[in-house]
Automatic annotation (TrEMBL):
This protein's record includes keyword Cytoplasm: yes
Cofactor(s) recorded in Swiss-Prot or TrEMBL: pyridoxal 5'-phosphate
Modified residues (N6-(pyridoxal phosphate)lysine): 255
Chief location: cytoplasm
Enzyme superclass (EC): transferase
Protein name: Acetylornithine aminotransferase
Record organism: Thiopseudomonas acetoxidans
Summary of subunit composition and partner proteins: Homodimer.
Database matches in HAMAP family: ArgD_aminotrans_3
Binding residues for N(2)-acetyl-L-ornithine: 144, 283
Phylogenetic classification of the source organism: Bacteria, Pseudomonadati, Pseudomonadota, Gammaproteobacteria, Pseudomonadales
Length: 411
């Protein structure tokens, strides 16, 4: 029997897939480190990291080994049983954080769903059903389930999927007065990203997080930090909350936790975890041996002084060079973020045109991201070689130069 497969083309997407994505015209087929290759053999440097997922680049040998070894032992047994990789990974996360208990799932949305459900369950059990309100922030992003998309503060993602869940309020990010006005005895949780990722790579102010922590304690509400994008070393600390010295009651992580393999986690304290008694919440695939074996290898590599310090050093190189490019070509008004989660905010003349920069970069064989139409986002591998940063920036400068030259020509 022949095992040869039919050729696959980008046009097949439009034929067989639900049209909720608009993928690029080329199809990546192979990756190694911070480079990917498409079907034609074209090589691109990856400053996108699978949207901050490929924390150790593509096909890191330790991750390949962990997955391969586990694949030869045990794939799935369901949560009727436990398994060794899940227990090992949970123990590593607890030892590296404020947490005492871990719940595994498969995506950031699922981790946030669990966090929000837990917060409501704690409040219901301890105070009654009237304490169910959730405060989120404008322009936040917490996932695509009906619950999480409405907790997220971007109406463009939630419109058309009503009726909306009740008891959700949105306040401006980094606005202490607005939070003080919104929170009350009916609030069960405040959910925040320490750095707003999808809406523009916007870090929280220290005073803001400190005051929100105080308000949550005052009103007996749980503080949830969504670190789906910032967790696992992305900012130069294992978790972004460590930069601020403000601990949450619940923390969610995903993306980088599996280095490309789907896995997420909700971390919390024992006194809250006990409210998720047997049968109150669950997941079929969450905590499976394959995902947790890979996650264990990821944290072993990332949670070291050498790698975390290297993230800060690489981030500083990338930030400084982007600032220089912004000044040279007049395209960026600000470069912000922490570690290797960086947003270059377009100047007034280029507002709304982030997609042009992505397209131009791709033509120069470089992958970058957007964080809304005003921000070009960079989230490369945490261990990308400095020489690759420089080569990628040279490609990006060529892209910026062509955009600006074309703009002058068309004026």
């Amino acid at each position: 029997m022949s095992t040869q497969q039919a050729p696959v083309e980008r046009a097949d997407f439009d034929r067989v897939m639900v049209p909720n994505y608009a993928p690029a015209a080329f199809v990546p087929v192979r990756g190694m480190g911070s480079r990917v290759w498409d079907q034609s053999g074209r090589e691109l440097i990856d400053f996108a990291g699978g949207i901050a997922v490929n924390a150790l680049g593509h096909c890191h040998p330790a991750l390949v080994q962990a997955l391969t070894e586990q694949a030869q032992k045990l794939w799935h047994v369901s949560n009727v049983f436990t398994n060794e990789p899940a227990l090992r990974l949970a123990d590593k996360l607890i030892k590296a954080s404020f947490a005492e208990r871990v719940f595994f799932s498969n995506s950031g949305a699922e981790a946030n769903e669990a966090a929000l459900k837990l917060a409501r369950k704690v409040a219901h059990d301890d105070f009654g059903p009237q304490k169910h309100e959730i405060i989120s922030t404008v322009n936040s992003f917490h996932g695509r389930t009906v619950f999480t998309v409405n907790v997220g503060g971007q109406p463009k993602y939630s419109e058309g999927f009503g009726p909306r869940p009740e008891g959700i309020t949105h306040v401006p990010y980094n606005d202490i007065a607005a939070m003080e006005k919104a929170i009350s005895s009916r609030t069960c949780a405040v959910i925040l990203e320490p750095i707003q990722g999808e809406s523009g790579v916007l870090p929280a102010d220290l005073a803001y997080l400190q005051r929100v922590r105080e308000l949550c304690e005052q009103h007996q509400a749980l503080l949830i930090f969504d670190e789906v994008q910032t967790g696992m070393g992305r900012t130069g600390k294992l978790f972004a909350y460590e930069h601020y010295g403000v601990e949450p009651d619940i923390l969610t992580i995903a993306k980088s936790l599996g280095g490309g393999f789907p896995v997420s986690a909700m971390l919390t304290l024992e006194r809250y975890a006990k409210h998720f008694s047997v049968g109150t919440h669950g997941t079929t695939f969450g905590g499976n041996p394959l995902a947790c074996a890979v996650g264990g290898a990821v944290i072993d590599i990332i949670n070291t002084p050498t790698v975390l310090q290297g993230v800060l050093e690489r981030g500083e190189i990338l930030t400084q060079r982007l600032q220089q490019l912004g000044e040279k070509y007049g395209v960026f008004q600000q470069v912000r973020g922490k570690g290797l989660l960086i947003g270059a905010v377009l100047s007034e003349a280029w507002q709304g045109k982030a997609a042009q920069f992505l397209a131009a970069a791709e033509k120069e064989n470089l992958l970058v991201l957007m964080a809304g139409p005003e921000v070009v986002r960079f989230a490369p591998s945490l261990i990308i070689e400095p020489t690759e940063i420089e080569e990628g920036l040279q490609r990006f400068e060529r892209a910026v130069q062509k955009i600006t030259e074309n703009d002058e020509t068309n004026k």
